[in-house]
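Minutes, project check-in
Item: structure for the 356-residue chain
Input as provided by the requester:
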Amino acid sequence: MGFLKSIFGSREAKFAEVAPFGARFEIAGGQTLLEAALKSGVPFPHNCTVGTCGSCKCRLTQGRVGALTDFGYTLSAQEIGAGYILACQAIPKDALTRVEVESGAADAPAAESFRATLAAAEPLTHDILKLTLELDRPIRYVAGQYANLKFPGLARARNYSFADAPERAGRTAPSFFVRKVPGGAFTEALFGGRLQGLALEVDGPHGNFHLRTGAAPMICIAGGSGLAPLLSVLEHARRTRVRRPCALLFGARTEADLYALEQVRSIGAEWADRFAFLPVLSHEPAGSAWSGARGLVTEFIADALPGTAWSAAEGYMCGPPGMIDAGLAALTGLGTPLGSIHYDKFTDESHAAKMP
């Protein structure tokens, strides 16, 4: 009983306030902050609701909360130290809880549901496909956002970032980079050719990952299929003539795992300011002809853009949890403020399986 009381608190009335929405609502006993917010009509960012995606990350400014699942599974030590929590796992303990939510891009359209069919599946590496869908109507999104994809019989939708720069009128054939997850229901069907001819469900756009306005140097870090949203962001920035220094670091295991290199070079050739591209291989055989960087991609952040004033830089990272956590530690260690680092942490069924 003591444990339950410590998590769920007493039965006195509890309320929460969420900035910048200006919302105040009551929280029933046992409700998470996210459950209460959504029930009250607050447009709180969220997706998985089980503590893996980080979409409902917010900063606790008043009150105490209990965690259904340890926030440290998804959030970094730096974020937890700065007061960030996951609304989907937070049970308020005090009479008033205040949190701040990072607002999304001002021009982000509302999510909609679409019908789709598989248009193409192009191999990029041995375990990454470029998936192109044909939608029943154009979808509009902000560069960096993602969509939920589902086929009949799949219990839970999968999230994939748009790999293309957005178009003003929307896209009827968006593309996504999909990495094969052994045993994953969606990717096993896709890589096995079983999605051909199926009616797919697409819901989107979602997510707050996007390029902020300003002239700050951009330090972009991608791992595996995490290159998709960064290519969307960078291609859109190139087309709109964004003028700011940029470095793109791309981490892969071996040279065979590198892809989209010509597209990156094309973006760099037409970038309106200084642009650096650094691929880093973590498991390239010692005797190979590779003469580039070796090791973990986050070990090369400090050298990516010489002369960078790190306190004024912005970080943009997309990839697996370990890379994101290491990137946060490296960037904050160099002096980049935590609030200037934006990321999309890619989790899969192997991560979800660890949840209770």
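Outcome recorded: Residues 1-9, 351-356 have pLDDT under 50 and may be disordered.
No further action items on this chain.
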